[in-house]
Design a protein that fits this description.
The complex is a heterodimer of chains A (103) and B (727). Chain A is an alpha+beta fold. Helix content of chain A is 12%, strand content 24%. In chain A, strands 3-2-4 form a three-stranded antiparallel beta sheet. Among the domains of chain B are: 143 residues, Cullin Repeats (5 helical Cullin repeat like, Up-down Bundle), CATH 1.20.1310; 91 residues, 5 helical Cullin repeat like; 76 residues, Ring Box Chain A, domain 5 (Irregular); 89 residues, 2-Layer Sandwich (Ribosomal Protein S5, domain 2); 82 residues, Winged helix-like DNA-binding domain superfamily/Winged helix DNA-binding domain (Arc Repressor Mutant, subunit A). Chain B starts with 6 loop residues before the first helix and ends with a strand. Classes of the chains: A alpha+beta (103), B mainly alpha (727). Bound molecules: zinc ion (3 copies). Chain A: GO terms for molecular function: cullin family protein binding; NEDD8 ligase activity; ubiquitin protein ligase activity; zinc ion binding.
Amino acid sequence: MEKSSTSKSSKPAPKEESLFTIKKWNAVALWSWDVTCDTCAICKLLLVDACMKCQNEIKTEDCVVVWGECNHSFHRCCIASWLNKSNRCPLCQREWIVQRIGR
Amino acid sequence: MRKSIDYDATWASLRKVIFDVLTLKPVDRIIWSDSISDIYSICISSSEYIERIYNDCKEFLISHITHIKKELTGVYSQALLKKYYEYWIKFSSGASYLNSMFTYLNRSRNYMHGSDSSYEQMPYSSQENEELPAEIGQIAMQQWQEIIIEEYQVELVNVLLAAIENDRKEENIPVADLVQGVIHSFGKFFYQSVFEARLLEETKNFYARELARLRESYDFSGFIKAVKNRIDAEQHRCQKFFHVSSHSKVLKACISRLTAEQIDYLNCECARLVKNELIDDLNCLYKLLRLVDNGLKVMLQEIESHIKRIGKLLVINLFRKTCEDYVNAMLKVSDRFSTLIQQAFEEDPEFKTIFGKAIRAVINHSNSSSTPIRAAEILARYADILLKKGSKNWSDAELDDKQSHVINLFKYVDDKDLFQKFYSKFLAKRLIMNGSISLDAEEEMIKKLKIICGYEYTSRLHQMFTDIRLNEGVNSEFSSYLNKKNIKLTVNFSASVLQSGAWPLNQTSSPYSIPPDLERSLTTFEEYYCTSLHRGRKLVWLPYLSTAELRMTYLKKGYYVTTTTYQMAVLLLYNNALSYTGRDIATWTQLTEKELIRTLSSLEAAKILIKENSREGNSYKLNLEFGNKRTKFKIASSSIRESPQEITKVHSRIEEERKLFLQATIVRIMKSRKVLNHNSLLEEVIKMSVNRFSPSIVLIKKCIELLIEKDYMKRNEGRQDEYNYIA
Ligand SMILES: [Zn+2]
Ligand SMILES: [Zn+2]
Ligand SMILES: [Zn+2]
């Protein structure tokens, strides 16, 4: 969403009592992982969903995203089993160092 | 050491006892046990005596039976049957006593012939072990058959069959014991080789005559009832008269004459009964046809095509009717025919399957190949009506009933994935707009869907609930966060944060200009949510779904109005002036043209703004005379009103999703099977898709081709109808 504040200064001056006053405001937002690519390159599923294994075991709550120093991101479960075979990022082959874990 | 014994004297006294036993005269207990010990003494004295007493006993039986034979001469017909039966009953029970009196002799002879099996049961089973020497009881039976049956068999069988015919005609009904007893006296050999064949012959002849008579005297309805009665009676008769080995043969002779041999006639009338849904007649005919091998085939076909015909006619008539009309009509059809299946066909599983098949065809019927099948969308809309606030005031029980109705029809819908798309769209709207009658009712419905389609099908719907429930906690934690940080927001702000994957919402929205103090609420919340509460998340605000409550202070009464953020952005302008040109509003609010037109027309429709046309363009004036019955009200929002394009979008999106689903399914199957032939692959894919949609063969083939191109699999070089998985 873009918000604009252009030419606010030229708006007519406010009157003494506002005709409309805001009592409540409920804003709706969608959250997603702050990632460059929204699918997990290991399991091919969307990062916002749980990985295949967690979906099957019905524990989607625990399936979070993890970012490497290289800024690539995967399901934590997926990269964990990947690291059993190799300690490199599946996408860029750089050494895998965790930058942050989603929450 | 053997005791010497006077055989002749012993036999002479035994002979008298034998006569008394056979003729059922009272025998003194002492005489009875003396006789048994005499027989014992004879048996242990010498093997020569064993044979001698055995032969003497046999001779005695022969002369006794020959005497009975003479007694029966000159007696005929019913009288013979009666007299014969009396002699037989007496003789057979006498012979049974005699056999037990001679137990020791029987045992000794069995022992001599190298077996110790003892005489068990009168009279059929006694003849089974032919290698064993006949026991006294068996000798009695054998001789009865050789002497008496041999002599009177023709007359006896004729009289007996006549009695059975009388029973069938229900005239001069014979005494059951008598008929059964005489048949019993025949013994296994005569029964099987002579009597049973005659009985079956007579049965067939009788029912051929009976069939002609019934056809002549009744209309179809009366006829099938009469046939049913005849068959039931014959079943009962079998139990009453005949040996169990004949029951199915006699019944079959009766049934084949009365039903199987005229199945064409029955089937021909069946169509008429089905067309008029004559439940009683159908039930009767069903019970008859059920008895014939493969006899229900035509009836099943008639029922299937009847349900389809009636149902499809109904679908055509429902074109352009409301979804409530549609659901009610479908329920009526489904109820009507499930009642028919229950009452006429006694819940027969074959008929239930046919019912399901036909209802499925009706529900997934489309008036023409160009119009999409509406069932999925209609049912989702109907569910929306049920769960939306303010439609009707149903009780919990009524609501539960109505939800079950949706499920009952949903079961038969092929496009379950399409239903899910529409359902989640409507659910999103209800949850965000706070328009649900209750979260419990919503959850109940989803539970019902889950039972049919499984966890995966409803997992996103569940996620939507979870989000709504989590938001309460998020907002109260946000308040404590504000307190702790000593931040004061100028408006009473709350946020609804939704997981982007679960909600079918458009992420792109029009930009708009808002006062800086409002904007500060958003940024403060964002900071709290993305850094304090969570990590690695980002938020996209959806102003078209966000709502504000504004107080209108310029009127006679104070009103509270609920608006969208866009409407709010426009209305806040009027704090500074009472009228704006359209162009100015566009400039101040920064809304896109499309959103601006929508927003202004909604405010105009609510009579808050008054539109004035002039040469320079439209202008919008605040309506200072505004009034409303309610002090709290809502301006109808057009932002999430659906357009026809949106529905087309759902349909085209579903096509893409299906292709992806099929490809993933094929890969999954091939990965586990490695090699699979074409038809088995199709079969498995269809089986795995059944809870989402029913894929066409063409679409599956297309997906296989795509996967071959993408090198996921290849055709087997030797066998073209086989595929290999490429790892
Ligand atoms: Zn993954
Ligand atoms: Zn996982
Ligand atoms: Zn990387």
